[in-house]
Amino acid sequence: MDERRKPAFVPLLCLALAVLLSEAPPRCAAFNPRMLFLVKPDPIVLQDHRGALLTGNLTVNLLFYGRFAPAQRAIVADFVRSVSASAPHPQPGAAPSVASWWRTTTLYRGGGARLRLGRQILDERMSLGRSLSLDNVTELARAAGHHRGAITAVLTAADVLVAPFCMSRCGVHNHARGGAHGMARYTYLWAGNPAQQCPGQCAWPFHQPLHGPQTPPLVAPNGDVGADGMVISLAALLAGTVTNPYGDGYYQGETGAGLEAATACAGIFGSGAYPGYPGKLLTDPVTGASYNAVGLGGRKYLLPAMWDPTTSLCKTLV
Q1: 3-state secondary structure of 240
Q2: Burial level of 116, CB count in 10 A (0-12/13-18/19+)?
C-alpha cells in the first residue's frame, strides 16, 4: 500500500521534565502537548472537536520488533486481552480489573471501542535495522497489513533505537492513508521498551526518575521494568488512539497536538497523586509489587489515570 501523504508525528511522551519544575525543558517545549509528563498538569478540559472516533469492535495487532522474551510478549498480549474482557460483578474488596479501566473510554462520544487481540508478528531479525526513524515505524505498520477495523502497535525491543526515543518521547500514535487509491485511513502506534535507554524517563515509577526527588522505585508488577513500563505507554496510546484517532477528536491544545485521554492525567496512577508520587496503589503481599488493576489470569498491571468526560477529572482505579 502507498500512503497518500506522510503523517506528521506528534510526541505523546515527553518525560524529560524535572519533577520539581513547572515547565518543560527547551527540547520538550518545541513539541508542545500530546506529551506524557511525570508531573500532574494543570486542570484541563478536553474539547470534543467532533471528528471521527474509533468505536465498536477493533482488533489490536502487535508487531514485536527486535528480541522480546516470550514472557515479555505475554505481559503485553495479556494486557490487550484483558482490556475488553468480560468482568464478573465486582466483589467487595476485590482489585479493579483492566477492563474497568478501559470502560472509561465508553463515556466518550460514540460509546468507546471493544478491543480484541489480533495477530502477533515477530520481526526478531529487525528487517529495517537496529536504528529506526519514525518514518520507518510508519513503514512497519503499513507492511503489517489488515488495517480495516484494526490498530497496529509497533513495539520495539530495549536495544532498538528509535529517534528521538528518550529525548522527547516514549511512544506515539498516528494515522496514515493506504489502500489501492490511498483513501483508506488506518491507525497505528509505537511504544518502546525503556529498560536500557531511558528507564528514568519512560519506566517511572518502576525506576528512579531522571530528575526530582530520588525516592525508591516501585516494584514492577510483572517483575520486568521494561515490559511493565512499556505497558503504561501502550495503555495511554490506545486510549488516545480511540478517542483522538485522526487529530480531530478529544484533545486540548493546538490542532493535532493536544493533551489526550490519558496524557492529560500523566503521572497519576492512584488517588492522592502529586509530582513525584504516583498516588495510592495496591501492593502484592508476596512480591511487594505495586499495581492498580488485575487482568486475565490474575496478572497485575499499573495503568495511568484517564480523563473522565462526565466529571472533567482524572479517574483513578484506587
Answers
A1: helix
A2: middle
CB-based contact 67:124 (threshold 8 Å): yes
Answer for the pair 35, 265: CB distance below 8 angstroms, yes or no: no
Q: Residue 208: helix, strand or coil by DSSP?
A: coil
What is the 3 state secondary structure string of 50-67? CCCCCCEEEEEEEEEECC
Whole-prediction pTM: 0.85
Residue with cell 488516545: 240
> In this predicted model, what pLDDT tens digit does every residue of 9-56 receive, in sequence order?
433 444 333 333 334 443 333 333 334 444 444 567 999 999 999 999
SS3 assignment for 150-187: EEEEEEECCCCEECCECCCECEEEEEEEECCCCCEEEE
Which H helix or E strand runs over 80?
A: helix 70-83
CB 304 within 8 A of CB 236: yes
Cβ(75)–Cβ(222) below 8 Å: yes
Question: What whole-number distance in Å separates Cα of residue 179 and Cα of residue 32?
Answer: 32
Q: Which of 163, 41, 248, 47 is nearest to 33 (CA)?
A: 41
Highest mean pLDDT among 1-15, 146-160, 218-232: 218-232
Grid cell for residue 146: 489488515
Tell me how far CA of residue 21 lies from CA of 41, 107, 209, 212, in angstroms: 11, 33, 13, 8
DSSP calls for 7-74 = PPP--S----S-TT-SS--HHHHTT-SS---SSPPPP---EE-------EEEEEEEEEES---HHHHH
The grid coordinates of residue 32 equal 508542545
Query: Omega of the bond prior to 205 within 30 degrees of 0, cis?
Result: yes
Alpha-carbon span 57 to 75, nearest angstrom = 22
pLDDT band at 136, cuts 50/70/90?
very high
- Distance from C-alpha of 100 to C-alpha of 86, rounded to nearest angstrom: 10
For residue 233, which amino acid is it?
S
